[in-house]
Design brief:
Layout (H helix, E strand, L loop, with lengths): L1 E2 L2 E2 L16 E3 L10 H9 L11 H10 L7 E4 L1 H12 L5 E5 L4 H8 L5 E4 L19 E5 L11 H5 L7 E5 L22 E6 L1 H4 L7 E5 L1 H10 L7 H10 L2 H26 L7 E2 L7 E5 L3 H10 L2 E5 L10 E5 L3 H12 L2
Parallel strand pairs: 3-13, 5-6, 5-7, 7-8, 8-9
Antiparallel strand pairs: 1-2, 4-10, 9-10, 11-12, 12-14, 13-14
Helix pairs in contact: 1-8, 2-8, 3-4, 3-7, 9-11
């Protein structure tokens, strides 16, 4: 889907398909070396139950307990991407607004469902920070990511909550929030913000992109509307097993440790990129997610040169609000980053 020159269906995995499969992957924002062995074992153990239809009650209860919510405020989905489709199809809205630059699937899903979508474009000169005044007062659906993909901006929870209005659905994509130490600025679990819908994904931190598992947190009446739009048995038995495992206390502790490692590795990447400032490399910041957004002249040529040296990064020009001078780079361990920085320096 192309709108205004932006390919809303392009995602980072396109960089590492086919002839990119052997590249070092800094294009996809899934934590490297995942899923861990214990999680693979839990998923494998669930395969003995494949003859039965999936029963999501235990996983749903586990997610509810993780966020200290009643079960009727939780809906399990086949990844956060399914949640965007459900919202677009199930909710009756007149003026949906998507805050960009951000993950493009929410707008694509809304357009596919026949909606006309307005965009609020955050500005580079403002550090891509949310300006609440830019959101139209009559918008009855507002979608924003936090932390935002691809800008890596972490918006204050109070600022986002301030967008809530009577008669408005406020959708906050928190797919990367568990990669933020302490999950500061999270809205998941809040019940005091009217119209709030929070989306979470277990794909990024746990390396489950191929399994498709996420969930929605919202008021019971919204959950019921979305659930009616779902097909029967939308989440597989292995995905349900993964969901239950990933919200257990030991898993949450492991995710918290991983978030601190990501923060340390991100600072190492940022320090390395700063060495190329005299060559026009500029990092949008302050970065708070497991990826960074970089501005560089001839970004398309740079991306191709990096591919020739064995590294895949994400093009930025498919995101509304960004042009062809932007690249998104996933945070990786120091060894990988050292090799990547050498490849950058060789240009």
């Amino acid at each position: 889907m192309h709108t205004d020159g932006h390919d809303l269906r392009h995602h980072g995995d396109a960089e590492v398909r086919d002839d990119g499969s052997a590249l070092v992957d800094l294009a996809v924002n899934v934590r490297a070396d995942t899923p861990p062995a214990w999680l693979r074992e839990r998923i494998a153990a669930s395969l003995t139950g494949l003859a039965a239809y999936p029963d999501g009650r235990a996983a749903r209860a586990a997610v509810a307990a993780r966020h200290r919510l009643p079960v009727d405020r939780v809906l399990l989905t086949a990844g956060a991407a399914e949640a965007f489709v459900l919202l677009a199809r199930a909710l009756k809205v007149r003026r949906p607004v998507v805050v960009h630059p951000q993950f493009t699937e929410p707008e694509a899903a809304l357009r596919d469902a026949g909606h006309s979508v307005d965009r609020v474009l955050l500005r580079e000169e403002d550090g891509f920070r949310l300006d609440p005044a830019a959101v139209p007062e009559d918008a009855d659906l507002v979608v924003i990511g936090n932390p935002t993909n691809p800008t890596s901006v972490l918006h204050p929870a109070a600022t986002i909550a301030g967008l809530a209005r009577h008669g408005r659905t406020l959708v906050v994509d928190e797919a990367f929030m568990d990669a933020v130490p302490g999950e500061r600025e999270a809205l998941a679990g809040r019940t005091d913000v009217p119209g709030l819908v929070v989306l979470r994904s277990l794909t990024k931190t746990w390396g489950l992109a191929g399994l498709r598992i996420g969930y929605v947190l919202a008021a019971p009446e919204t959950i019921r509307e979305l659930e009616r739009a779902q097909p029967l048995w939308p989440v597989s038995t292995p995905a349900l097993a993964a969901a239950e495992a990933c919200v257990s206390p030991p898993a949450l502790a492991e995710a918290a440790r991983a978030a601190h490692r990501v923060a340390t590795d991100r600072e190492y990447l940022l320090a390395g990129l700063a060495e190329f400032a005299d060559r026009g490399v500029q990092v949008a910041g302050p970065a708070q997610a497991p990826f960074v957004l970089v501005r560089v002249a001839r970004a398309g040529a740079v991306r191709r040169e990096l591919r020739a040296r064995g590294y895949a990064v994400r093009r930025g020009d498919t995101f509304p609000g960004l042009g062809d001078e932007w690249l998104r780079i996933a945070v990786r361990d120091r060894g990988t980053v050292d090799g990547f920085l050498r490849a950058v320096g060789a240009g």
